[in-house]
Structures are given as structure tokens and as C-alpha cells.
Design a protein that fits this description.
It is built from seven helices and six strands, in the order αααααββββαββα. The chain is α+β, with helices and mostly antiparallel strands and 252 residues long. The two termini are 38 Å apart. The strands form two sheets. A three-stranded antiparallel beta sheet has the order 1-6-5. A three-stranded antiparallel beta sheet has the order 2-3-4, with no helix packed on it.
Amino acid sequence: MRLPLRDTAAVAAGVLAPFAAALVLAPLRTSVTHTNLALLLVVVVVAVSASGNRFAGALAALSAAAWFDFFDTEPYQSFHIQDRADIETALLLLAVGLIVSQLAAHGRTMKRVAVTDATHLERLHATTRLARSGTSSSDDVVRQVRQELIEVLELRACRFEYGTLVGRPPRLEPDGTVQVDGWVWDLERQGWPEGETELRALVHGRYQGRFLLTPEPGSVPPSLEARLVAADLAAQAAEALDDDGVGARPMS
């Protein structure tokens, strides 16, 4: 499975940014204390961690410690350190870099989770408002849910079948798991199954139809939270169809 472009760039920055910074700082090694040079490299580690992920941050900390040793400690252009104080500084650089990289990545993760939660909540509220507006048909609700599913699951396409159960495609369950031939599919490790995956629209145990999901080839699977939101959206569509009594007719 391919890494997202952002994560790939972050990993590359984790390797290259400390190297570039240490190279730029090398002319200052005789006029600036080694401790201050190490602190400047910590800033680079934090910058990578804040815009990347935990792995990129840890990689940046390791890279910073290595290039600090290579460029800023005697003997220069060597990964050998003679002075005990420089050894301690290099080890502290590594330890502090690892700690701050994880803290920065954690903060970025928490921010992303908060924004994602708010977005998911708004999707559910918007669909509820549409269903209860009194001016929209069940078809309107189904169309909106289709669009929301494409966005929340990052799909290439999504279509809806009214009241039919033809074939046995992979199925996204209400608990967020994916079933293939009665077995739980390891979505995180294996990615989406081949072909379309169905998400049934059920309300009070009554089947109203199903959404057929087509993921982008090679895409990263959505989080469990996103899949649970998708199941809730499908349930809202099912409730609208049940209220109208039109679950078994083809979509116009």
C-alpha cells in the first residue's frame, strides 16, 4: 500500500532537513557552542514533526544526532566523537529530539481528530436536517448520503440500489468491519477488497436497499470512525425510505 504524498514528503524531510541544517551550521562550529548548535537542530526536528508524522519525527531526531556528530564534533567529517561532553550533547540531542518529535506529532494528531470529529458531526446533522425538513423526498436524502459517503470514505464512486440483494459482494457492516464471504476482512492491512463493497440501508431490521461503494485504487482505507459515520448515514437514508415506503422501487 502506498503512503500518502504528505507522509512520503515528511519522511524525506526527516532525513534531509537535519542534514541540510547541520551542513549550513558547520561554519559556525568554532564560534558557537556545540550545545547551541544542537538546540538549533532540535528546532528542525520539531518543524518536521509538526508537519509530518511520528515516524518522520523520530527519523529526523536520529538524522539530527548523526549529522551533528559528523559536522559539528571533532574529528570533523567522521561519525566518531572524542570529547565526552560532545558525546553527552549528541545523546541529549537524540533524546530531546525523540521526545519533542512525539509531542509535536501527538499535538498535530489531536488537532486533526478534533477537526475530523466536527466535520463528521456536521455531515450527520446536515443529513438529519434534510430528512426532517419536510420539503425533501427520500430520493433527495439518498442523493445527499451518496455524496457524503464519497467524501467521508474518499471513494471514486458510489451508487444506490433500491430493495435488491443480487450477488454477495464484500459488505461494510454497521460496526465498521468489512465482511468478505462471511469472514472479517483486515481492511487496515489489506486495503479495500476488489470491486464494489456494499453498505446496506437498514432501519428497524427492514432492508431498504444498499449503497455500492467503489474506492480509489490503492487508496488508504478510511478510519474506523469514518466507517461508523458511513453506517450512520446509510441508516438515515434507510429511515427516510422507510417513512416514504419507497425502498423497493428503482431510483428515478
